[in-house]
Amino acid sequence: MIEASARNVHIAYVCADRGVPIGGHKGASLHVAELVRALGERGAAVHILGMRVAETAGATLCGADITDVGGSRSARHAREAVLRAHGAEQSPAQATEAAAVLFNQDLARALERLHKQWRIDAVYERYSLWSFAAAGFARAHGVPYLLEVNAPLRDEQKRYRSLENPALAASLEHYIFSCADRLMVPSSILIPYVTTHGTTKKAARVVPNAADPARFRPELRRKAAASKTCGEFVIGFVGSLKPWHGLGDLARVFRRLHRGYGGYRLLVVGDGPLRAELEEELRRYGLLDAVTMTGAADHDRVPEHLAMMDVALAPYPRDAPTYFSPIKIFEYMAAGVPIVASRAGQIAELLSHRRTAMLHRPGAIGEIAASIDELRRRPALADKLARQARQALVRGYTWKRNATRVLTMIGEVRREQARAAAKTQR
Length: 426
Hints:
47% of the residues lie in helices and 14% in strands. By secondary structure, it is of the alpha/beta class. The protein is globular and about 75 Å long.
């Protein structure tokens, strides 16, 4: 039950990360869209302010208006000026970081304009490096500030890209973490990180990712089965084609399986920097004719892609981060597709071996192949795992449930602020 004070609340949803385009196809973009949709269905009014808006997004997303702050003239001019100005004394990465810091000026102005027209009741921000204007706005206006932290971004930036101003990044991170009235992480593994970098245990909450069971329906698989060639068994993967998704293991597993049974097919739904490398590896194995790669897929089409799969994979390798909460797993569960996944990070908390999925050690090619082949030979086991995984999803991991938790937290913070204000007036 959502308390009355949380209904019709005006939420400014802030995403200042250029790597997360509003309305885009990435998993992070999907996370924004699904939570915004669920908040709207729960009675909240949401206005999105983003640093980058996908061309296909338009002026609204899931019923929420969008302000393309990063696409405004002043933001574009500032970014272009900084990027042009970097010379021998400044690396491109330094220029990019400087432009992201400057973006806070435009974001602060956009929040103030929106507040005058619309009355912002709460600020919800998806954490990004260099963003601090939303936290400052919330503090200045005394409205709840909720921060969603999906990863230790400073660590990721150093590991996978380049971090030129680590001291500034650490200071800003500590500032916004300490400003947050509630700080949400998708996995309990992140709690120690956020509590040692600014937030308190009281403010921290674990809110795993989710899926919409109404959009991913098992009956779609029954309809899709009629279109398959007799004897065909489709192994599927959904996600961005990036290093930490175990794509090399995926190719090797498929090679091993196809040698033993020629009816195996591979369906890869997604795109990314490793696509060419994956295709080349499959070509060397002589398997491209048995593979379908969709490229970047509109999320509305993902349910039909999942419906074609007999098994869905999440083959995270040994060196994959352990703090993630993979949306693909929740969508596999909702779609009623049997899952074969690495026993890594939150996956081991969500799924039970031989009860809701077949789990394996990260990087264990033989275990992955054996699990898939067993599910092909034992359809009754595959059906049982899929059915029980969907039941677990419906009980505890839906976007509507997450939206309810967000609205409940906003109500809690508003009461805390009201009590604090009453004390100061005594």
